[in-house]
Amino acid sequence: MAKRIGLKPVSAADWSPRHARHLLNRAGFGVPEERIAELAALSPEAAVATLLEYENTPDDLTPPNFLVTAAEYFAYREEAKSLPEEQRRKLNNEMQVRERAAMLGLQAWWVERMTHSPRPLQEKMALFWHGHFATSAQKVKSSAANYQFNSLLREHAIGNFKTLTTAVGQSPAMLRYLDNVQNVKGQPNENWARELMELFTMGVGHYTENDIKESARAFTGWGMDNGQFRFHEERHDFGQKTVFGKTGNFDGWDMITIIFDQPATAEFISRKLWTYFAYENPEPEIVSALAENLRASNFEIAPLLETIFRSEAFYSKKSLGTQIKSPVQFLIQLADHLDLESPPYLALARASGQLGQMLFYPPNVAGWDGGRAWINANTLLTRYNMSRSIVVADFFEPDEMSMMDMGAMRGEMTKNNRQQFQASLQNVPPAERKEIRAKLDKAATPEERRGLIEKTMIDLEAGRRWDVQAIFGGLEFTQAGECADALAARYLNTPLSAEQKEVLVAALTPSGSPKAAVSAQTLSNEEMSSALHLLFSLAEYQLC
């Protein structure tokens, strides 16, 4: 009978660089690559501790300075009251433009933070909670409120789940998003009460419609004043409520306590965290054991994560290299693997949106589905072409705060691109320059010509900005086959198949022989770039 792998801690004898890579991928974003060797040199217990005990690591990343503050927003509202209709509309449009620009900046800011934070687990958990307690800037249009909510998730990232749930329910972002600001005595709004049970704590099937209705009454009066939580007693229903078989004069705080007393709550969040970090459809005994430990620790998340990250099951074949990278993780790792010192963070944030994960804009209150939902025909093709696009993204992307005047920006980009294209051609050999111009002359329409110009610029800029020599210079190989293996060892979680290796070798040498002598000095930029593009296009590269 096969040995059952569970929550027993993985042994030091089984610990390896592959295990360390797996831990860094799942408990962070897999960057920087150098951290793998550092974690592999430690015991499993110490490696997990370095990630979990992040409060001991100084956090030198600064908060954004471009948000529309609450004070500015309230001053705008007061000013608008005394203005004629036309001026009020103009002022409102200006504020909306500022808020949209600030949200773009906030997306870029968070991608930068996730890329470089000395506390990767804190950011990975903030991303988890962002999908779990989902709110969207599509409805909550205040950049300050969205940043405050993001900070809240970061602050409580591995803290107490019950404390976090209470803080989320009292946050301006969630109060607006699920309309609890409109939840008053005599006219209860059920949105927050329903999603609290269904999506945030218990899951479908563990409550009744009456539980939701009575819970909504308990949360009446939870609202805001001047952008801060306030319990409005005059709006609260002080009548008797019956929830989960208990009757009393319950308020919102009582309601959260009652929900956390239900067995389903610990099981629900244990299953969801295991799925996020390890694999889908966890064994019932794993969920049961994690839930029991969570209840014993009074819903502290850190001990639960320690159990997960140290378990044999977390490092089993079912888990290693089997998780589809989220768009955010895929792009952060890709930028690191391209050796980009300062990636175009706004472009990475936008690309994440293209791939289905737009930060601060989850699709609905249920957040992102994750897993196989990250991959479809369109997103897979976009992923395959992303490596070249990211290398030159900052060549086309404006600074995020220049997004305020979209029309002027587009005109300026067109003008700049023409000038940059002419400048780029000066560095091209005459014969190649002639060939490029001949292709442009054959363009049937202005749109086709612009497309050819952009593609040519991407090709030219990719060659100039992507220092493939440095990437290959850091690998050890003397033959094409060894080079393919070295690339796979650095970038993939599994070895190359025979067919994959054959294709990579063909990209590295015209002979297609794995024994062909090659080096970083003898390989051309085109050969190295082609090999890397092929590697980043493999299905295995989409996994971590």
What descriptive keywords fit this protein?
544 residues; mainly alpha; two-stranded antiparallel ribbon
Q: What is the topological layout?
A:
Elements (H helix, E strand, L loop, with lengths): L16 H10 L8 H6 L3 H9 L17 H12 L3 H32 L3 H13 L10 H13 L5 H9 L2 H6 L13 H11 L7 H10 L3 E4 L2 E4 L9 E3 L2 E3 L3 H9 L2 H15 L6 H13 L4 H10 L16 H11 L7 H10 L22 H15 L1 H4 L9 H20 L4 H12 L4 H20 L2 H6 L6 H12 L6 H11 L16 H12 L8
Antiparallel strand pairs: 1-2, 3-4
Structure, explained:
The longest helix has 32 residues, at 85-116. The chain is an all-alpha fold and 544 residues long. The chain is built from 26 helices and four strands. The strands form two sheets. It has a two-stranded antiparallel sheet with strand order 1-2. A two-stranded antiparallel ribbon has the order 3-4. It is globular and about 85 Å long. The model is unreliable at 395-413 (pLDDT under 50). Among the domains are: 10-52, no CATH class; 405-465; 468-542. The chain has helices at residues 17-26, 35-40, 44-52, 70-81, 85-116, 120-132, 143-155, 161-169, 172-177, 191-201, 209-218, 252-260, 263-277, 284-296, 301-310, 327-337, 345-354, 377-391, 393-396, 406-425, 430-441, 446-465, 468-473, 480-491, 498-508, 525-536, and strands at residues 222-225, 228-231, 241-243, 246-248. Strand 1 (222-225) and strand 2 (228-231) form a beta hairpin.
